[in-house]
Design brief:
Blueprint: H1 2-30, H2 45-50, E1 77-82, E2 85-90, E3 121-124, E4 129-135, E5 144-148, E6 153-155, E7 176-178, E8 184-186, H3 194-197, E9 204-206, E10 211-213, E11 231-233, E12 239-242, E13 253-256, E14 260-261, E15 264-265, E16 284-291, E17 294-301, E18 304-312, E19 317-323, E20 329-335, E21 338-339, E22 342-343, H4 344-376
Parallel strand pairs: 10-12
Antiparallel strand pairs: 1-2, 2-3, 4-13, 5-6, 5-9, 7-8, 9-10, 11-12, 14-15, 16-17, 17-18, 18-19, 19-20, 21-22
C-alpha cells in the first residue's frame, strides 16, 4: 500500500514538472508580442533603408527562397540566411488597405503578430519533392501553407468548414481576412504584389520552399501544364507554383517536404489579444483606416454603419471601442500583463498548476498517514 501511494506522489511531482515546462514555453511565446508592431531586427539596416516598394525589379532565382524576393518590402520584412533555411521576420501587416469588401464577417480585425525571433518563418532554401505530397484541394490544413513576400501568411483556398473562402464572400479586395487571432492572411494568391516585385518574380513561397508566381511566367505566357498542386517546371527544371483565377487560386498543397504536426504544417504562431469573435449576420465591411497604431474598421448592417476602433496603447494593451449600428458604444481594454517577463494569464496558470499539485500531494500524504495509523492498531 505504501509503495503504491509513493508511486502516486511521484506521478504528481512529474505532472507538476511537466506542466511547468510547458508553461515556460507558453511564456516564451507570449513574450514575443511586444515585438509584434516593431520593425524586425536586421543586420542590414542601411541596405533596407535604401530599398523601397519602387526598387528595381531584378530577376529573382527560382531555385528556392531568396532574400532578394522580400527586399521590396524591407520596411516591414527582414530575411536572412541561417544554415540551410531562410529566416523571415515580419509583423504580418501588409502596407495595402485591408478588410474592405468582406461580405461574410467574423468581426475579426488585423493586429500585428510576433513573427520574429524563435517565432519567425523558416523556409528551406533547397526544397525537395516529398514522397507523399500533401493536397489541400478537398480537406484544408489548419494555418498557413505559404508566405507572401510582404510577410503576410497565405492559407489554402478553403475555410475551416471546407468551403471556398472567396466564393463565400469572406475575403476583402486584396484576397485576405483575419482569423480568430486577429491575424491577417490571404486565402488566394496576392497577385497585386507583382506591382512591386515584377512579373515573373515570386509573390510568395510555399512552406516547402518552392516559389509562387502570378498568373503568368516571366515571358508573359499563361502556363498550360500545371499539375494538381498548381505547379510545373520551367525551362531550367525549376519547380514553382502559380496563381490561378479559379480554384484553388494558389498552390493546391505542398509538393515538397514539410513537417506536419496534426492538421498543420510547422509554422509560427499568432498571438491573440482578445477572445475569438462570432459572425455578424448581414454585415459588409465598407472602410478601413489606419494611422500608425490606430485603426478604424467601418461596417454596414441593414443600411446602418458601425465601427470597430482600436489602438495599440503599449506592448501589452490594446483598446477597442465598439460602436454599434444602433448607436450604443462600449470600450474594452485587452491586456497582456507581464510578471517577470511573462504573461499574467500564463503566470496565473502556472500558479494554479503548482497549487493543484501541492494539494494533491497533501491529500495523498494525509491518506498515507491514516493508513499507517490503522496498521498500528
Amino acid at each position: 500500500m505504501r509503495t503504491r501511494n509513493s508511486y502516486y506522489v511521484v506521478l504528481t511531482l512529474i505532472f507538476i514538472a511537466t506542466n511547468c515546462f510547458k508553461t515556460s514555453q507558453l511564456i516564451a511565446h507570449h513574450n514575443h508580442f511586444h515585438k509584434a508592431h516593431v520593425r524586425p531586427n536586421s543586420n542590414q539596416q542601411s541596405e533596407k533603408a535604401k530599398s523601397s516598394v519602387n526598387a528595381p525589379k531584378k530577376k529573382v532565382s527560382l531555385t528556392g527562397p531568396r532574400s532578394d524576393a522580400f527586399r521590396p518590402f524591407s520596411k516591414t520584412v527582414s530575411a536572412r540566411v541561417d544554415a540551410d533555411v531562410l529566416v523571415v521576420e515580419s509583423n504580418g501587416m501588409p502596407d495595402h488597405d485591408m478588410m474592405v469588401g468582406i461580405r461574410s464577417w467574423q468581426q475579426q480585425v488585423p493586429l500585428p503578430q510576433p513573427f520574429v525571433g524563435d517565432n519567425a518563418w523558416r523556409l528551406p532554401m533547397k526544397p525537395q519533392f516529398a514522397n507523399q505530397p500533401i493536397s489541400v484541394l478537398k480537406k484544408p490544413l489548419r494555418g498557413a501553407i505559404a508566405l507572401a513576400v510582404n510577410g503576410v501568411p497565405i492559407f489554402c483556398a478553403l475555410n475551416n468548414r471546407g468551403e471556398d473562402t472567396f466564393l463565400a464572400g469572406e475575403l476583402d479586395h486584396w484576397g485576405g481576412h483575419c482569423g480568430r487571432g486577429d491575424d491577417y492572411h490571404y486565402h488566394i494568391a496576392p497577385v497585386h504584389l507583382e506591382d512591386a516585385v515584377g512579373i515573373g518574380n515570386p509573390i510568395g513561397y510555399a512552406l516547402d520552399g518552392y516559389p509562387i508566381l502570378g498568373y503568368t511566367d516571366a515571358d508573359g505566357s499563361v502556363p498550360s501544364d500545371l499539375d494538381e498542386f498548381n505547379g510545373h517546371k520551367d525551362a531550367h527544371g525549376n519547380y514553382h507554383y502559380h496563381a490561378t483565377k479559379s480554384f484553388p487560386y494558389v498552390n493546391g498543397g505542398l509538393k515538397g517536404k514539410v513537417t506536419l504536426r496534426g492538421d498543420q504544417i510547422e509554422q509560427p504562431r499568432d498571438s491573440p489579444v482578445r477572445p475569438g469573435q462570432s459572425p455578424l449576420k448581414g454585415a459588409t465591411v465598407t472602410e478601413f483606416k489606419r494611422n500608425k497604431d490606430r485603426f478604424d474598421v467601418t461596417y454596414e448592417v441593414a443600411g446602418k454603419s458601425g465601427h470597430v476602433k482600436y489602438k495599440i496603447l503599449d506592448d501589452e494593451q490594446v483598446e477597442f471601442v465598439y460602436q454599434q449600428p444602433s448607436g450604443s458604444s462600449s470600450t474594452v481594454v485587452y491586456r497582456r500583463g507581464r510578471i517577470g517577463g511573462g504573461d499574467f494569464f500564463v503566470a496565473y496558470l502556472l500558479g494554479s498548476i503548482v497549487v493543484f499539485g501541492l494539494l494533491a500531494t497533501a491529500l495523498i500524504m494525509r491518506r498515507n498517514s491514516k493508513i499507517r495509523k490503522e496498521e498500528l492498531k
